[in-house]
Amino acid sequence: MSGKNLFVRESSGLVKQVNATDSIMLNLGNMSAGIALFTSISPYITGGGIIWIAAIIGLILTLPQAYIYMFLSGKIPRTGGDYVWLSRLTHGSVGMTMGFALMIESTAFFALVAYFFSSAVGTVLSTIGSLDGIPSLVSLSSTLSTPLYSYLLGAVIFAIIIGFNIFKAKWGYKLVTVSVIISIITTIIAMGIIAVNIPDFHTAITPFLKAMSITPPSNYASSVSPFSIIATIGILPLLAIFTYPWMQATPAIAAEAKNVNYVKLGIIVPLLLTGAFVTIGFGLLYLAGGYAFTNYEFINNGFVYTFWTVAMGLTSNAILQWIIGIGLMIWEFSVLAYGVIVFSRYIFAMGFDRLLPEIFTRLNKAGSPVYTHIFDLALTLLFLVLPVISISGATALYGAIVIGMIYFFTVSIAAAKYGIQNKYWPVVASGIFEAGYFIFLTYEAVTNPVFGFAEPNGAPNPITLGFVIGAFVAGLAIYLVAKYYHKTKEGLNVDVLFKEIPPE
User: Fold this and answer.
1) CA distances from 387 to 113, 119, 160, 336 (A)
2) Displacement of CA 62 from its chain's centroid (Å)
3) Could you tell me if 78 and 349 are in contact, meaning their C-beta atoms sit under 8 angstroms apart?
4) Does residue 319 contact residue 325 with C-beta atoms inside 8 Å?
5) Which end of the chain is less enclosed by CB atoms within 10 A, N or C?
6) Following DSSP, what letter does each residue of 300-361 receive, concatenated?
7) 76-116: per-residue pLDDT in tens?
8) Which of 282, 352, 396, 320 is nearest to 84 (CA)?
9) DSSP 3-state helix, strand, coil percentages of the chain (rounded to 5)?
10) Which element (helix H / strand E) includes 438?
């Protein structure tokens, strides 16, 4: 049986419309430097560590992964990206189990981002309201943080993004590109404000500290541990798990890129830019405030004293305050915007491989995989209910990020196998190195309570454990059911599909 008869159809139907800028911005939204500069890193650091040094180390250790993704994207540029690599280089069951688990984990994460979008909005409103003496903004911030408003705000924003993608696939890409460009510009503005205030930072930051009631005591320096390279390396997993490895967005839309080199640019450029933004952003805070002051605020007031709030606090210009605040909100928005595109392409690829219903591969007249988007919306709205029912239960799903580490470990193994078979020794070396690195990160994700999988006593969170196991079991079960169905109904062994590269 020829390859073209194995799949749902001879061509995916997706249009090659992604240019270099779209490709780069998609993965920049994926890595989300602006959110790393918000509250996903600094509140969790240990005494003695310096974030910007850890950021440089993390960037260096991620370069072999970027090489793997650039290499395999050039060799196998298909919709679904690394799901296709996994299912072809290992086995269909591996690709489906890992790929579907990753999508379930990602959907839960996007739902949490949508729900806690109100947190970013609330931070901006409360900061500006406190700085400028506007009680109504502080009050509105509190209102938006209530469960009902958080749900409604998240649901409306996500539905709008889905609508853009359904109406025209190209609009979805432009939504990501525009939002990330705005985010980058506002980040640079925030950096500039911090930089110009370095000479008299401690005087300039005083109004902000007083407004937020986080002024350190006179003897604060004595409570800060001295710098330690060991403690700095201890910060590394925060960056290595939450930020750097998430470069699979652009490879997932490789079949829609106008040129395969745009996909490669969409891997390495976002990684380098993310490293630069995180390193410079945190570096400016350390340079301005000094080591002791900065770590004191991060450790004791890390959810209030952030890159974004400090930048807002250093200027009395209301317009600049709002520009910076909007930049933070747009960074959060861009995560949802890229996520809608990437989720749909993975599900599309699984449908094209006959593991999910064929309906997920159907396109509307605008070239959009409309049914995958509807599935995404339904699944996300379902997950959005969880924080309303139980905040602690929902936030436990952050710990499911361990699925990503296991997934990237598997991709690294698949890359090493491909390199061995085809005698691409740099790929072999990179795959082996990254496999070891992701074993370490998986261990960190499972044992370090910061990541939410483990409780402070070391035991796994039962909700997180159940979710992680359930995600992998669901992926494998779908594969087995699809294999049985196609064998009995059509006489087709789906494993044969994975000996072919899907047509585009």
Assistant:
1) 11, 13, 21, 17
2) 15
3) yes
4) no
5) N
6) HHTTTS-HHHHHHHT---HHHHHHHHHHHHHHHHHHHHHHHHHHHHHHHHHHHTTSS-GGGG
7) 999 999 999 999 999 999 999 999 999 999 999 999 899 88
8) 352
9) 80, 0, 20
10) helix 425-447
Q: What confidence tier does 226 reach under pLDDT thresholds 50, 70, 90?
A: very high
Q: Which CATH class is domain 3-486?
A: mainly alpha
Q: Is the pTM of this model over 0.90?
A: yes
Token couple for 52 = 């910007």
Could you tell me the pLDDT band of residue 503, with boundaries at 50, 70 and 90? Answer: low
Task: Please provide the size of the chain in residues.
Answer: 504
| Residue type present at position 181 | I
Closest of 298, 321, 281 to residue 194, by C-alpha: 281
pLDDT of residue 3: 44
| CA 4 to each of CA 1, 15, 281, 360, 369: distance values in angstroms, whole numbers, following the listed order | 8, 19, 50, 18, 20
The pLDDT tens digits of the residues spanning 361-411 come to: 999 988 899 999 999 999 999 988 888 888 787 778 888 999 999 999 999
Q: Do residues 166 and 154 touch, judged by C-beta distance below 8 A?
A: no
- Give the rounded distance of the alpha carbon of 157 from its chain centre: 18
Amino acid identity at 427 = V
Q: Which two tokens stand for residue 356?
A: 């999910």
Find, among 26, 24, 44, the residue nearest to 36 by Cα: 44
- Helical H segments across 133-168, by residue range: 135-144, 147-167
**Of residues 19, 13, 12, 501, the one with CA closest to residue 257:** 19
Of residues 22, 19, 13, the one with CA closest to residue 365: 13
Compute the radius of gyration of the chain from its Cα atoms.
23
Q: Which of 217, 235, 183 is nearest to 30 (CA)?
A: 183
Give residue 504's pLDDT: 64
Which pLDDT value is given to residue 372? 95
Helix (H) or strand (E) holding 477: helix 462-490
The pair of structure tokens assigned to 213 is 């009631």
Query: Rounded to whole angstroms, how far apart are CA atoms 425 and 441?
Result: 24
Continuous segment of H or E residues that includes residue 70: helix 51-75
Domain ranges of the chain: 3-486
